[in-house]
Structures are given as C-alpha cells and as structure tokens.
What does this fold into?
Amino acid sequence: MLVWIVFAAVGLLALFFRNPHFFRDVQFVRKKLKTRSRILKYMQTNYSILDRFIDAEKEHPHKPFILFGDETFTYRDAEELSNKAARVFLQSGLLKQGDTVALFLGNEPVFLWLWLGLVKIGCSAAFLNCNIRSKSLLHCFKCSGARTLVAAEELQDAVDEVLPALLEQQVTVFILTDRCQTADVKSFKDQMSHASSEPLSKDLRSHLTLRSPAAYIYTSGTTGFPKAAAISHAKLWNLACIPSLAGMNSDDVLYISLPLYHTNGFFGFASAIDRGITVALRSKFSVSQFWNDCRKYDVTVIQYIGEIMRYLCNTPKKPNDRSHKVRLAVGNGIRADVWRDFISRFGNVKIREFYGATEGNFGLINYSGKIGAVGRDSFLHRRYFPHAVIRFDVETETPLRDSSGLCIEAAKGEPGLLVSEISLMAPFSGYMGDLQQSEKKRLHDVLRKGDLYFNTGDLLRIEEDNFIYFQDRVGDTFRWKGENVATTEVADVITMVDCIKEANVYGVEVPGYEGRAGMAAINLTEGLRFDSAAVFKHVENFLPAYARPRFLRIQSSLDVTGTFKHLKTKLVAEGFNPNQITDPLYFLDEKDKSYVPLTVDKFNLITSGQIKM
It folds into this structure.
C-alpha cells in the first residue's frame, strides 16, 4: 500500500511540473520492482536458471533452442547433451560439490552444454577469454580456483604453451576433441559420446542456493590482470531479465554473436532460457554475414556493443538493408551518430541501450529511446534502487568530500562517478581470490555516515532533462574493440622486452572509433636502441589484438607523482598527434609486422579513416 501511495503522490507532483516522461518513468520502476519481487520469490525456493531450463524442456522439448550454422539443437537435445557432459565430470571423480571448472573456448553449443552440466552436479564454471595467452591465461586460471580445465580443440596450442605449469599444479586438462595426441591431456568429446543422457538426480545440487556462484566472468577492472567477478544464481537472474525489461518476449528469436565468455553474450543465453525462446548463435561476429544470418534464422532481437553497430553502418549500402525481421536491439556503447545512422538505414529497430558492470549491483536502461542516453534519473528510481552521481577528482582518482566527510553529488551536466548502494537487495560479491581489489570497489560514508556504496569506476552525467549519459571510464582501464584493457597488464608485458625499461600505458581517442586505442609512453633501457620489429613480435605473442598498443611514444623519462604513480592526464590530452608532440612516435603496422614511424602523413590517413585500426 505504501508503494502505491508514494506512486500517487509523485504522480501528482509530476503532473504539476509537467514531466513528459513521468508515466514511462513510473512504468519502468514498476517493471524493475516486479522483477525484484520475482527473483526474491525464486530465492525462497532456490529456483535457478537451470531449473527454468528443465521446465522449459518439459514444456516444449522439440522447440529449437540453439541454431548454429546449419545445425539445430532442440531443448530436448540440450537437456540430453548437458546430461552427458555432467556425467563425464562425475565419472572423472575429479569434482566435488561446489567446485569450479575453467572453460577455455569460444562460441559453440558445447559451451552451453558444459555450463548446464556443471550446474546440474552442483558446480560452477569460470569463463576464460579465449584470446588470452601465456601469463594472462595462467593468472586467470589460477584465480578461478579451478583444478580442471576444458579447452576447445583449436586452442590446444595455447594450452600446450602453459601445460607444464598446469601439470605442476596437478591440474586436469580436457580438450574438446574425439582423440587427443598430447600426453597428460584427456579427450572430452570421446567420453561424452559414450556417456548416458539420462536425467541426473536433483540431490547432486541440493546444496546450491541463489547466492551460490553460477559462474565467474572476468573483468579487467581498474588495475592489474583480469579479475574473476562472481556471478551468483540470483545475479544471473537479474542479468537474464534485462532483455525482458527492454521489450523481448516469448515469441522472439535472439541473435548472439558476442562472446559467451563475456557478460553480454552469456546473459543473452540466460534470458533465452527465461523466455523459452530460440537462440541463433554465431561463432564470432561477422559484419558481412550479420544480416544474412538475421534473415536465415528469422531473428527478431539482436545484442550489440557499440563497435558492432558502427561496423554494420560502415558497410556498403544494399537494396535489402531493411529486409529483415529485427525489431529490437539490446546492448551498450553505441554512439549517438551511429544510433541515428543505424535506424535511418536499417529501419525502425528499437534500440535499448543499457548500462551495467559485470561485477556491479546496479543497471540502467534507456527505455524512452532518447538517442545517446543510457537511462533516466527519477525520484522513484533512486528511492527503490539507491544510487548517485558524485563529484570525482580524475587526477587523484578519489571522490570529493565535504567538511563532514561525505561525498558531494555532482551538479546537473557535471560528469561524476556513478555509485550504487550495497545492500541485501543489491549485493556486491567481489572478485574471486582478490580481497584487496574487492575492497577498492566499496565506498564508505557516501551520502550518510555508515552507508556502503559500489564504485562503478565510470563517469556519467545527468542533464537538466534528467537523461543520463555515459562520459568515460576512470582509473587504469580503457575500452577498445568492445574489450576492457588493463593498462598495468599491458605495461607489464611491454617491459619484458629488453630495450624497454619502463612503460606508461593509456588510451587515446581516435576519430571515428568507439572507446580508446592503446598507447604507451616508453623509456628505453640505457645503451639499447628501440627494436621495432622485436617489440611488435613480443606484443603479438603475449597480448590479444585488442590490448596491443597501437601507438608508442619514446620519452627520455616518464613523469610520475610523488608516490611514483605515472601521470597520464597530459599524455592522454596530447594524444598521438606528431604536429604537437616532439617525442618520436610509432604506429603498429600489421602489414609490416613492426612499429613504424608515425609521420604527419600517416597521422592524417589515420584520423581521416583511410588507415583502418
């Protein structure tokens, strides 16, 4: 009753002030409250996404669940194949209830069978980015706490590179192949083909609650190597409900070309289970096949990140650009100009931009369709989902506080740090095995003494009309090609090269691209010259493509603070313009397989879009 009294009172005030978005604001908050109520009900009975899948299989066993290439897997197929995967793990005798298995593979149906199978036996999975190698791969595996690794056949070379270190830790390694030639590595598919597909006892997962981990998904965070964010079964339910809040229904066909090891890809899979719908799964995003796939599979809902939408808009126009059934696009990171171009070219597709973090406890959805915004600020939303945008010093990377020690809310139009209250209704689970980084995400005494808020690490701004816009990331992370890049990790890798003594890594804006391209200011080792070919080969071997610095700047010394922290603000502002920088500049040239001098002519070709990044 109290809720409705609040709604009515706010309604009268809104009508008085003539807020044109009032009814949409109320409707959105009601939807979120209904979703919260639904998940609370599930928590009382420990009803998980897996339980919803099992019910969906009983409701429509022969309905297509996964469309992959020319293959079709029904809900019954998925049930039986996940049972087989579960039995391979059980029969290995390696796992006990609550254990974690690391999955090292890209987008393919078996990824889903493995996860479902693990939850069926009361275990969880850590999703390793299939682009990581060497030191990063070992780090991510270690912090997952897993003792078992399952890898795709095409990733065996990457596994072989770290195999001695894994065997030293007594890790069991499976490869998804029918027959494996490498000693000490087991074949998973062969065992799976001989396993029973009969249902497993629910007793195997009787210890699980919705607060138990469903998966660990890696995020670069603000510093260091990727960190494993714990995704509980309750959190997975919250993620699964995003597309529904955005307008997806039980008649839709969802297209997933984003990586399943990322939150955006995996929650699409979970949301499909929630609605009992069909997923068209692509092994990897293809700009040339995107719309062909949408037509082939009668796709009605797509998931995106900003880069995908820009790639699609940059393709040559075709007469059949509007010949498709896509009605809804759900994702994040789309630029306002790309948004306009997309709907102008490809038709009346509702774009629902959302904001959220893998490890976060709060989210926004642009339910009104305002181009460029990520959501709206309203009294009701703050009342039931407490959050704030606070003033933030980007130099010291700390919130500004008043004389009483409390944080100061940012003014309208002023970029500030988004924080959200941590509570039983909105928990923050932290990072697996990293208490220090987990604590850095907790802010105390934000709006009142004794409160506790989650530090999103993102700058947002609220305009006078109460629309919220994403401004930038803070700290030592930037985003490029849809991936988070941790600068300290890149710097650690670069300084392994003999000729480089020290590196300060940061992101710079490049006209026409979302996010920031990697750039490193480096100081050379005394007595050694810059070996451009060797540096290229090193970053190619040890860093995924998105994390490789596109630009290098050679300095005689690197500027640091009194606490020896690298200064980045000036470097970021100067960018990579040789007209303004006297230091030697280099550009990563994929064709020459080297870092080549960045001349004024090359700079002009890059900024005009004639040289592609």
User: Anything to note?
Assistant: The longest strand covers residues 452-462. Residues 22-45 form the longest helix (24 residues).
